[in-house]
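Re: [help] complex structure
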Amino acid sequence: MNFRINIANRIVFFILFLFAIEFFSAQNNSGTLKIKIHPVFNQTQLILSDHGYINTHGDSVYIDDFKFYLCKLCLKKEGANSFCEVESYHLVDAEDSVTQTIVIKNIPEGTYSNFSFNIGVDSLKNVSGALTGDLDPIKGMYWAWNTGYIAARIIGHSKVCKTLHNEFEFHIGGYLSPYNSLRKNSIKLDDLKIVSSKTTVLELYADVAEWFKTPVTIDVSKTNSVVLPNKQAMIMANNYSDMIKFKKSINP
Amino acid sequence: MKYKRIHILVLSAFVIFICSAFIFTNEKEIKFFVPKGWPKPNYDFKNNPLTLNGFDLGKELFYDPILSSDSSISCASCHLSFTAFTHADHKLSHGIQGLIGTRNSLVLMNLVWNKSFMWDGGVNNLEVQAINPITNPVEMNSKLVDVIARLNSSSKYRRLFYKAFKDSVVNSQKLFKSLAQFTGNLVSYNSKYDSIMRHEGNVEFTVSELNGYSVFKKNCSSCHTEPLFTNNSFENNGLSLDTVLKDFGRMKVTQSKSDSLKFKVPSLRNIEFSAPYFHDGRVNKLKDVLEHYTSGVIQSPTLASQLKQNVNLTKQDKKDLIAFLKTLTDKYFLYNLQYRQNIYQ
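Output below.
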């Protein structure tokens, strides 16, 4: 092992600082977007644990836990490159309203027509070792024995499930083909305007009903535990890939 | 506008002046050493800058039972330095309250060259490996949240984390990165074999070792490839399925039948001291390992093609092969005091 005191650090730091100043002073004509996510079952607000909902198969299901990663948030306007949030990784938890609001700053002014996102964490972050913030494994959306992030999960119960406590659980993850759970999607916006130094609001639904619906109708009496990256997990991921829906936007 | 720019510049120069005082107190960096002729490591310390304080913190944590739920088990309980950091004498590792795990503890050395971790390769990065023993109910049985809380409420650790990361708040990232600074630095490259390969002094193989080396190159090195003595792949080397443990190895991770009964090809460095052998520790002596390759290989669809026919070794070949394997023992590594428990504090 060799030892040396790092003075080069100091110079690099100085230069980075100058760049940072240039960067922020150049971002004058930019505004803020506040995204609000409403967990729902079909069009009704999701109430955890105590409220039964009828799924597409016709069974009454109770949802006890609903979490997912919403990542790589991008906005697109006509004739321009997309604006994408940097380090865009958000764990949304139906139980924690703080996680249901995402604020993105420094978005260039303009009228945007498309919002795109990933449900799940990209493969690069899955192999990047110990991370922090919403990607901290302490959040519980992480498999240790077969390392990787859980993209989305619901835990619930239904009396048609002949399991312990009538429970069903879907922990959907995996980043390696053929069982890559990452799903990209986008929604059309109705002329969402970002205005300099103002805040625009975008409201979205996260619809749990989609998990059970299309393309494959899920019968929880038969499918009640999907907890590994496998074929069943891909079916679930396809099902929920369209669970994020437009509610409304409020321009400043 | 222009005036404002100058204003900002002056202000920032001041801020930088203040900040650089802290940067300057940044700890001594350790440069990771790649032995001559070895491949580029897979783990990159660029994303986990190595410092003496980071390494020392990792070591402190490695030897401290604070990571287990009842403060009885440390990493070192299963990974002992003088057996190349494996659990000698235990077939399957023993964890909290004597609970027995399902696999034989692995050696910890040259980890930064690994492409994946564990016998089935289920872990993709050295940093996140530690989540497994810490949270495994039959190993350390802790909740990650509790471990972080315990460390945050220890004034000793707040001080050590501050020294290592210039921030005394403990989070899982800092815990895992400091452990990786310690375990990633466990490098074994000073065996007799290495001295000979590097033409150091007048060290030479004995006649028996030399014959063992050629037997090895003929029969073993396709998997146990030099210089790390593993090719980092997963193979079925013909062990029978243990009917109690029912461990199918790699298949559990990939869900693919073609990976049934495949396990990590382990390095053979320091093999003289890391008994018992194989993923479930079923064999105690090197001569029994050779017995397996010469007459115990079980045929099955995923068996490695090199082993479809039993390896043919004479009695002399076996003796020589074992003599060669013993030249992979690295006393500098096994007795390196830098790897032992900190005795200050």
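The interface with chain A takes residues 5, 8-9, 12, 15-16, 19-20, 23-24, 26, 28-31, 33, 47-48, 52, 118, 122-128, 131-132, 135, 144-145, 148, 171-173, 175-177, 180, 185, 252-253, 255, 338 of chain B (CB under 8 Å).
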